[in-house]
Amino acid sequence: MSLARAIRGSNWIEGYRATLDDVLDTMEDEEPLDASAETRAALEGYRDAMTFILRLADDGAGVDESLLRSLHFMMTKHDARADPGSYRRGDVRVEDEDGTVVYQAPDAEVVTELMAELFDDISALDDTPTMVRAAMAHLNLVMIHPFRDGNGRMARALQTLILAREGIVSPEFSSIEEYLGRNTEAYYAILSEVGQGRWAPQNSARPWIQFVLTAHYRQAWIVERRIHETERLYDAIEQLVARSDLPARSVGVLADAARGRRIRRSNYLKLVEMTTGDAISDLTATRDLKALVDSGVLEPRSAGRGRSYFGTYDLRELWADILDSRPPPAENDPYLPQPHRGE
């Protein structure tokens, strides 16, 4: 779920709008029901790149031009106009919806040199905190704008890659891509404030660093809250399954359905194997789903290939009750403006 939210957030910023269900289906090689073909291709590309990043996190691989170009190819291979895997050969500028130029990238002739400096900075053995190093890599890649398209997605993925390489915490939980997707306007505003419309490395990056550290803090707080809420949800569903004499292997699936996820027979098979480690047959999945419908925890919709199952009101109320008891945002957030206390 955390990885799906990161993928959705980063692509949402670029205008690829998809439901969380469609992102989850894409991650599991299922055909999304609502996303357009273009959005699906973008999600698949980002999924492949993020999956590769997760693999690299265990290998301790360095970050170099070959790796970055490979990630760009994975992300943009569906769009030949992006020149997948290659640096741009011409100059580019970023325009807003009205056609106003908001950023002029450096000349194409200096891109290779600037990227070499970026890789040197990433590999430098100094005492720069990892979160700051990752944030600066993100900022510099966006400002260099080395590709014709996909620079924002690449910069966000690069930041996650650097965090993952350090092994501080699982990349699914250290990424701030979900936060950036929810706060796109603020994200663009801070990049505009620091960039000032053109390549100007002498500008102070302090506002950007503070923005990123704020994002890390608040995203971590959200993830921690979700973990506790999910534990409570699993406890409630385990009790429900035991009372109703339902298959114990269905607990993870029902937890997803309680939170609003669309369930299909094909992903029921995958979810059961993912959460229990045991593979089941198509026939067993069909019997399980019938038992869940008969017991009143799932309800079917549509028919044939598009048949899906959703949590009933009673099942979704388990999650709603947990959300009703959700505490307010962290009151000790160090990044909230502090009131003036006078003398």
Summary keywords:
343 residues; mainly alpha; Arc Repressor Mutant, subunit A; two-stranded antiparallel ribbon
Task: Please describe what this structure looks like.
The chain has helices at 2-13, 20-27, 37-59, 65-76, 111-123, 130-144, 151-166, 171-174, 177-182, 184-195, 206-244, 251-258, 265-276, 282-294, 313-324, and strands at 93-95, 101-104, 298-301, 308-311. With 343 residues, the chain is mainly α. The protein folds into 2 domains: 2-203, Fic-like fold (Orthogonal Bundle); 221-324, Winged helix-like DNA-binding domain superfamily/Winged helix DNA-binding domain (Arc Repressor Mutant, subunit A). The strands form 2 sheets. Strands 1-2 form a two-stranded antiparallel sheet. It has a two-stranded antiparallel ribbon with strand order 3-4. The longest helix is centred in the middle third of the chain and has 39 residues, at 206-244. It is elongated, with a radius of gyration of 22 Å.
Question: What is shown here, in short?
Answer:
The protein has 343 residues and is mainly α. Helix content is 60%, strand content 4%.
How is the largest sheet built, in terms of strand order?
1-2
β-sheet strand percentage: under 5%
Number of helices: 15
Number of strands: 4
The CATH C-level class name of the largest domain: Mainly Alpha
> What is the string of helix and strand elements?
HHHHEEHHHHHHHHHHEEH
The class by helix and strand makeup works out as mainly alpha
Q: What form results from the Cα inertia axes?
A: elongated
Distance between the termini: 48 Å
As for the number of domains, it is: 2
The residue fraction in helices comes out at: 55-70%
CATH topology of the largest domain: Fic-like fold
Provide the gyration radius in Å: 22 Å
CATH superfamily of the largest domain: Fido-like domain
User: What summary fits the major beta sheet?
Assistant: 2 strands, antiparallel
* Architecture per CATH nomenclature, i.e. the level-2 architecture of the largest domain: Orthogonal Bundle
Report the uncertain regions: 339-343
Provide the residue-averaged pLDDT.
88
